């Protein structure tokens, strides 16, 4: 199963996927391409570290969504990589029907809350400020509804009285790093 990872930032989840692959914990999946929508994104540095092609693809003209010419460039890049699965790992842009239809049923997203609670931006901060005692992370199929597609798996994280926003974020990222590679491995065994 050929996996293309899309990201915008740090890339800690992409690193977790690649580490799982190297440790033989990614099932029949292998990462064939990393794509970022920001030229300075740290996720692009993983290419050299793990020997995987990594490229910036220009998402212009829009700032928060992928549509128009930028969308066409992303569709072409993912097609060129012959992707069986597109993994959104911190890709901070809303996908539109052009991209969604081009890879229908093949796109998954990672979100840092137990959906359907706290969708959208800053899922960790939303849960922390609301004072819930249990939050976590979700991997779901991507549809036109933002953070609304079918839930594939979740991992719960308890918010303790002594947790700060920073300590909670650390716990959620640790859960994400376990959950996302496991979901990809599971999907790969079904191909
Ligand atoms: C992750 O926490 C992921 O859940 C979140 O961005 C972070 C990316 O971290 N995604 C979203 O909020 C999507 N709405 P990373 O770049 O270190 O993998």
Unreliable stretches, pLDDT < 50, 5 or more residues? none
Q: What kind of sheet is the major sheet?
A: 7 strands, mixed
Beta strand count:
9
Q: Give the CATH H-level superfamily.
A: Formyl transferase, N-terminal domain
**CATH topology label:** Rossmann fold
Q: Given this structure, which CATH class is correct?
A: Alpha Beta
Overall mean pLDDT score? 97
Number of helices in the DSSP assignment: 6
Task: Give Rg in angstroms.
Answer: 16 Å
Strand residues, percent: 15-25%
Estimate the global geometry from the Cα principal axes: globular
Layout of SSEs?
Blueprint: E1 2-7, H1 12-22, E2 30-36, H2 45-50, E3 54-56, E4 65-66, H3 68-80, E5 85-88, E6 94-95, H4 97-102, E7 107-111, H5 123-130, E8 134-141, E9 151-158, H6 165-190
The chain binds glycinamide ribonucleotide.
């Amino acid at each position: 199963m050929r996996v293309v990872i899309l990201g915008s930032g740090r890339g800690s989840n992409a690193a977790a996927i690649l580490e799982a692959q190297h440790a033989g914990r990614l099932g029949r999946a292998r990462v064939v391409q990393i794509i970022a929508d920001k030229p300075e994104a740290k996720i692009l540095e993983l290419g050299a570290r793990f020997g995987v092609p990594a490229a910036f693809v220009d998402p212009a003209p829009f700032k928060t969504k992928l549509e128009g010419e930028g969308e066409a460039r992303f569709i072409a890049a993912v097609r060129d990589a012959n992707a069986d699965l597109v993994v959104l790992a911190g890709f901070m842009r809303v996908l539109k029907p052009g991209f969604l239809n081009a890879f229908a049923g093949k796109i998954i997203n990672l979100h840092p809350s137990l959906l359907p609670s706290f969708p959208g931006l800053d899922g960790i901060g939303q849960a922390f400020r609301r004072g819930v005692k249990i939050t976590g992370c979700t991997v779901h199929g991507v549809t036109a509804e933002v953070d609304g597609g079918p839930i594939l798996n979740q991992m719960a994280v308890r918010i303790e009285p002594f947790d700060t926003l920073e300590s909670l974020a650390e716990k959620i990222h640790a859960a994400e790093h376990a959950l996302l590679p496991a979901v990809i491995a599971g999907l790969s065994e079904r191909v």
